[in-house]
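Bench log. Compound arrived from synthesis this morning; before running ITC I wanted a structural hypothesis for how magnesium ion sits in the protein. Inputs:
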Amino acid sequence: MGRITLTGIEKAFGHVEVLKGIDLDIGEGELVVFVGPSGCGKSTLLRLIAGLDRPTGGRIEINGADVTRVGAADRGLAMVFQSYALYPHMTVRQNLSFGLENIHMPKPEIATRIAEAARMLEIEPLMERRPGQLSGGQRQRVAIGRAIVRNPTAFLLDEPLSNLDAELRVSMRAELAALHDRLGTTMIYVTHDQVEAMTLADRIVVLRAGRIDQVDTPLGLYNRPANLFVAGFIGAPNMNFFAARIAGGQAVLPGGLAVPVPGRAAEGADITIGIRPQHMRLADPGAPALEARVTLVEALGAETVVHATLADGERILTVLPGQPGLERDAVVRLAFDSADLHGFDGAGQRLPEP
Ligand SMILES: Nc1ncnc2c1ncn2[C@@H]1O[C@H](COP(=O)(O)OP(=O)(O)O)[C@@H](O)[C@H]1O
Ligand SMILES: [Mg+2]
């Protein structure tokens, strides 16, 4: 059982409010990712759930029991940190067994759990080494192993892959996903990396400045971002945004191109239109299009990132498939499907469905 319920969680350090009322229900076995820019309160929230710190307001429940005032050791959760936090003078085996010996678990049970975790994480050949003799990826495996042997109600992971190089991060990410599938244990995973969030999560919680902006599945966030911040944060490269005005029931873009309004908005309203770089293509001759001058071409082989500016100077980023053979200063005409447009009101909130 690993259901975690947060109700009205607040946290202030002195006069600084860091968390401003967090409500969230995490289901048994879910892999939930907290994502958001640096300083938005992700680690603070995770530490409150872990019991390493106390909220200044609100309630934390695990499987229906109020644990708000229960110490970290008695919550049955296991935390994994970016820094690994291994004991440098102990071997891998001792790092894994230390916590279990502390709670006086019988030796045979400890041995069984360690053997199982070591096999799962493929660290059996490393058991007699010290952390100093391990690579970053191996150290993080040991840190995860130390969490696994405790057989926790839930895993709490705070940017566990941030210290690894890009390639290793991708493979460890896949391993963590497989591990979650195998164990079926609730996981809360904190990252500032939206790709990590998209690839790992059952549900993503987008935090901004101490509040939850949106909670949804990865594709729910991608397809229906609730506001400009989420729209800009999820998806790479970032979504393009253009100021537009509703005239004659259509949204008029810079340069005068009129497109269907993606949602409900009043005549004369100023809105923002969003379109992802991957959702644009070179227009057929004569078809309605946004005209732009190319400022930079990044040819990646399988796709080409085209930086350009519209007539009024607004920048636009396009990801075109393949190698379209464009060069700087070329004039391109860009088209898109109106179904791929996103609309946001003056306050940055997604326009209601039409
Ligand atoms: N112990 C603390 N004392 C004072 N301020 C803190 C403390 N811990 C975190 N903060 C502040 O709370 C905010 C959120 O921090 P944190 O939760 O670490 O963000 P994130 O993990 O999202 O990068 C930051 O502005 C940080 O400076
Ligand atoms: Mg953090």
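What the model suggests: The mean pLDDT is 95. The chain has two domains: 4-233, 240-344.
ITC booked for Thursday regardless.
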